[in-house]
Every structure is written in C-alpha cells, then in structure tokens.
TrEMBL record:
One Pfam family matching this protein: RsgA_GTPase
Cellular component terms (Gene Ontology): cytoplasm
Keywords on record: Cytoplasm, GTP-binding, Hydrolase, Metal-binding, Nucleotide-binding, Ribosome biogenesis, RNA-binding, rRNA-binding, Zinc
Gene Ontology MF annotations: GTP binding; GTPase activity; metal ion binding; rRNA binding
Superkingdom of this protein's organism: Bacteria
EC number: 3.6.1.-
UniProt-recorded name of the protein: Small ribosomal subunit biogenesis GTPase RsgA
Domain (EngC GTPase): residue spans on this chain: 108-255
Compartments where found: Cytoplasm
Single GO biological process annotation from the record: ribosomal small subunit biogenesis
Cofactor mode of binding and number, as noted: Binds 1 zinc ion per subunit.
CDD domains assigned: YjeQ_EngC (cd01854)
Native species: Magnetococcus marinus (strain ATCC BAA-1437 / JCM 17883 / MC-1)
Length: 351
C-alpha cells in the first residue's frame, strides 16, 4: 500500500515537537518521521519524500527502548544524517508473544488508539481491558470500535459493556464498509492527529483501514464461520497519511496481548477498584479471601463486577512477575523447590 502523502512539505510540525528544536536547528536541520521499520532499516518521510536509512551503529548498540521506532520524529542534518529524535508524546509497548521477557516497542507519538473488536464471539471484556491498560500506560487515548454491528439486531449492549469498563472510554458500533465511516471517526482523524489500530485477527481491522485510506490494496480475509475468527492480514507495522491529514498506523492482528510494565495503566483502568482497596481493613488485603475486604463487599452488594475484580487480580499478578528481578525469580524457584522436597519427605520419607 502506498503512502497517501508523498512529502511532509504541507504538514506543519505540532507545537509539542516544534518547541524542542533550537533556533539553530530550525534553520540548519530538517525533521522527518519514521513511517516503517524493517530490522535495522528505517523508512522515513520528509520534505523531499520517502527515503531509507540504515540505523547508525551508535544507535544499534543502544537498548531497544533507546532506538527510534515507527512514529518517531528524527532531526536530520544537511547531509540527511540523523542527529537525534524528538521527545515522545506517547509510547506503546508490550511484551513479545510467548513466554520470554523481551519488550516489543510498537509505536511512538500516537494520539488515539482504536481498539477494534466485533459484535460476535470475539467480543471479550477482559481482553479489551488489556488493550485499554496498554493505551493508558502509553499515554494514549483509547477508543473502542465494534465492527460487524450490521450483523446483530442490537449493538448497543456491546457499547454499554465497553463503556462500563472505564469512565470516559468511547465505544462506537459501526459497519466497516459504511460510507459514513469518515464522519463517525471524524473527531479523532483530523489534520496532524496520529491514530493506531490494534485488535485480534478477523475483527475487520484491515477492512476499516482500507476504507479510511480509500484503498483496497490491503489483503483482507473473512472470518471463519465456525468460530468467527480470522487470520492475520497485516504482517508488519506501517504508518500512512490520510486525506484528512491524519497519520494512520496499522499493526498485525494479535492472538495474544502480553502487557509490559503497565502499573500506571492498570491503576488508571481500575481506578474504582484501587479506590475501594483503600478502605480494606488490612493493608495487604488480597481481595480474594481476606476478611474486611471492601472490594469483596462491593462485589457481594452487586456494585462491582466480579469479572472485573478477577481480571484486575490476574493482571496485577502478571505485573508482579514481569517486574521481578532475576534474583527474585531464582529465590522464588528455590523456595518452591524446598517446598516440594518437604512434601516428598513428609509423604515418602525421602527426597
């Protein structure tokens, strides 16, 4: 898919980034945006159009979080060599799929994250909470798009479920092929805005993006009828410029979303539970069996959804595991091994 914008000559730099340039830099340098990255090669868009840049050696030696990613703005000298990148307004990241601890840095300087789900069996509030936590942790506004609304009699219950997850979260039920799509998303796709799309495979994300870009070159595949699931139709992150003047980032569909270190995101998403926890009788209350628990009391009185509490505790446990140091993990494993040995001795009289 080609980029709808051939140069940046008519795209003003937003004040947040403009103020980071010194007077000398404003006259002697120019700014480009990273619109794709493949390995150590960046695809850039600047006043002279698209170009490729091999990541300089000094940057390749830096840890991944200190390397430019899609969405970053780079300051280039007159020889088109990178000098630095501008401070980020936002930063989306997650743990890579699998059981490893590697962090995947997804995008920078995104204003709105469109979380795409659908009005069918893909709809999963606990999964949506993961996406919302990722957005809040990255300082990005989430908006949930519920596709395939034309296939259900009443999409409103789906919207209400989403909006109950956190005060202020907007949910929009839509048909990805409806001609009014640009108008529905108009508040978030104005000139200079940067939006990203995340969602499971088969929820209509590629169809949405094709419609917004007025193109049909992105491969799409229908969801399987037996389980409403689809297959990945996007294989790499890439940023495009829309006719409205907004930047659009597409990402591959996800079967699994492992949050990175997202304590701040979880605190924001579950602020109601965090507030209730302050009223628990014991400071180390586990919100599962401890007496005097204000959270459990709210669940018992039907003022708090038990599912949300279970997911909150699950995500908190994941955060504890992710933030453990190597020494702490080894110590936990040693303690577990000692416990196993004691059980063996008690049961069999030997190790």
């Amino acid at each position: 898919m080609s980029n709808a914008l051939s140069t940046l000559s008519n795209v003003p730099l937003r004040p947040f980034f403009q103020q980071q340039l010194s007077m000398e830099e404003q006259h002697a340098t120019h700014v480009v945006r990273v619109i794709a990255r493949h390995g150590d090669t960046l695809t850039l868009l600047g006043n002279d159009g698209q170009s490729s840049l091999k990541l300089p050696g000094k940057w390749r030696l830096q840890p991944p979080e200190e390397q430019p990613i899609v969405g970053d703005w780079l300051v280039m000298d007159q020889q088109n060599q990178p000098l630095r990148w501008l401070e980020r307004l936002s930063h989306l990241s997650r743990k890579a799929a699998g059981s490893g601890q590697q962090t995947q840095h997804m995008a920078a300087n995104i204003d709105t994250l469109f979380v795409v789900s659908s009005c069918n069996r893909d709809f999963n509030p606990s999964r949506l909470e993961r996406y919302l936590a990722l957005a809040f942790a990255g300082n990005v506004q989430p908006v949930v798009l519920l596709t395939k609304a034309d296939l259900v009699d009443e999409p409103e219950p789906f919207c209400r479920q989403v909006e109950s997850l956190h005060r202020g979260v907007v949910a929009i039920a839509l048909d990805a092929r409806h001609p009014d799509l640009h108008h529905q998303l108009g508040p978030w796709i104005g000139p200079g805005e940067s939006v990203a799309f995340l969602g499971s495979s088969g929820v209509g994300k590629s169809t949405l993006i094709n419609a917004l870009l007025d193109q049909k070159s992105m491969a799409t595949q229908a969801a399987r009828a037996d389980d409403d699931r689809g297959r990945h139709t996007t294989t790499a992150r890439a940023m495009f410029h829309m006719k409205s003047g907004a930047w659009l980032l597409d990402t591959p569909g996800m079967r699994e979303l492992r949050l990175g270190e997202s304590n701040q995101g979880l605190q924001t998403l579950f602020s109601d539970i965090e507030a209730l926890a302050q009223a628990c009788q014991y400071r180390d209350c586990d919100h599962e069996r401890t007496s005097g628990c204000a959270v459990l009391a709210a669940v018992a009185s039907d003022t708090l959804d038990a599912r949300r509490v279970r997911n909150y505790l699950k995500l908190q446990r994941e955060q504890t595991y992710l933030t453990e140091t190597v020494w702490q993990q080894r110590d936990r494993h040693r303690q577990f091994a000692r416990l196993v040995n004691r059980v063996k001795i008690d049961k069999f009289g030997k190790r």
